């Protein structure tokens, strides 16, 4: 494998006395799409938060393009080129669609993504650009959250629960847009409840169980029984 763009080594994470992640080791190559799967409470969101600077880590637990970013704040991590599409969207409710998108662009990183590129990807957002973001459907709000992350022109994009709570037709649209999103060498980590979907869009996967990596491997060749065991912990 070429030098990874993201390298996580021995990552622990805590909520006060509760340990949510135990010694996670994970690598993402340039241009690679990785799926993160696991049951509710396995630690997927905590992993996304740890990478994006929303939890306190030790500096050398997370390395991005050779820089030790584990102890950086979320805004500093974003400037390095990592963008998060958070669980539950977390849009700014009083702002319009376009204002939400522009906030993502404030980082000022150069790259292929701009307002017009996001509107080309999701034309409905251009139609709704002056509407308050909360007046949109859940699927359209997810498009805004994705567009906001893209506006930062990241090298690595993290999708947390990309399809949770969305109608199947919208999920299809969002997955259809993924190749265009991830093209041009961008790497991605995708947290997804739907294991079949997660495996179909990724090259490799990591399965978490109670805060530990229970299985990792190639998405195309993993056996279903192995996934079930790693996911549910049943023998
Ligand atoms: P889900 O699919 O439900 O989002 P997840 O795999 O993303 O699950 P996390 O949200 O990372 O899991 O949670 C991992 C563990 O940490 C769970 O046991 C959860 O209860 C706990 N946890 C998460 N957030 C907090 C918090 N703010 N305070 C205390 N414990 C937390």
Q: In percent, how helical is the residue content?
A: 25-40%
Can you tell me the overall shape?
A: globular
CATH topology: Rossmann fold
Q: What is the mean pLDDT? A: 91
Q: What is the helix/strand order?
A: EEEHEEHEHHHHEHEHEEH
Ligand inventory: adenosine-5'-triphosphate
Structural class computed from helices and strand pairing: alpha/beta
DSSP, total strands: 10
Q: CATH homologous superfamily?
A: P-loop containing nucleotide triphosphate hydrolases
Number of helical segments with 4 or more residues: 9
Gyration radius, in Å: 17 Å
Strands across the major sheet, in which order?
6-7-8-3-9-10
GO biological process, one term: L-amino acid transport
Domain ABC transporter: 6-235
GO molecular function: ATP binding; ATP hydrolysis activity; branched-chain amino acid transmembrane transporter activity
Family: Belongs to the ABC transporter superfamily.
Task: Tell me what you see in this structure.
This protein is an alpha/beta fold and about 240 residues long. The protein has one domain: P-loop containing nucleotide triphosphate hydrolases (Rossmann fold). The chain has nine helices and ten strands. The strands form two sheets. Strands 6-7-8-3-9-10 form a six-stranded mixed beta sheet, sandwiched between helices. Strands 2-1-4-5 form a four-stranded antiparallel beta sheet, covered by helices on one side. The two termini are about 30 Å apart. Bound molecules: adenosine-5'-triphosphate.
């Amino acid at each position: 494998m070429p030098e990874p763009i993201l390298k996580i080594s021995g990552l622990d994470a805590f909520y006060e006395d509760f340990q949510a992640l135990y010694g996670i080791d994970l690598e993402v190559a340039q241009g690679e799409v990785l799926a993160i799967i696991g049951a509710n409470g396995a630690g997927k969101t905590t992993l996304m938060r740890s990478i994006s600077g929303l939890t306190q880590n030790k500096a050398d637990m997370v390395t991005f393009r050779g820089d030790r970013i584990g102890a950086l704040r979320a805004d500093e991590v974003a400037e390095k080129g990592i963008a998060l599409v958070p669980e539950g969207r977390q849009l700014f409710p009083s702002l319009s669609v376009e204002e939400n998108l522009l906030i993502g662009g404030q980082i000022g990183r150069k790259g292929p993504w701009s307002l017009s590129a996001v509107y080309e990807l999701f034309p409905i957002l251009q139609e709704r650009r002056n509407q308050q973001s909360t007046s949109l459907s859940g699927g359209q709000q997810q498009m805004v959250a994705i567009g906001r992350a893209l506006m930062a022109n990241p090298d690595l994009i993290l999708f947390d629960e990309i399809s949770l709570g969305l109608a199947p037709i919208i999920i299809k649209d969002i997955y259809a847009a993924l190749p265009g999103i991830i093209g041009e060498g961008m790497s991605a980590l995708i947290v997804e409840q739907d294991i079949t979907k997660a495996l179909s869009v990724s090259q490799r996967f990591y399965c978490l169980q109670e805060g530990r990596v229970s299985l990792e491997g190639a998405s195309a060749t993993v056996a279903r029984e192995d996934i079930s065991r790693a996911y549910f912990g049943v023998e």
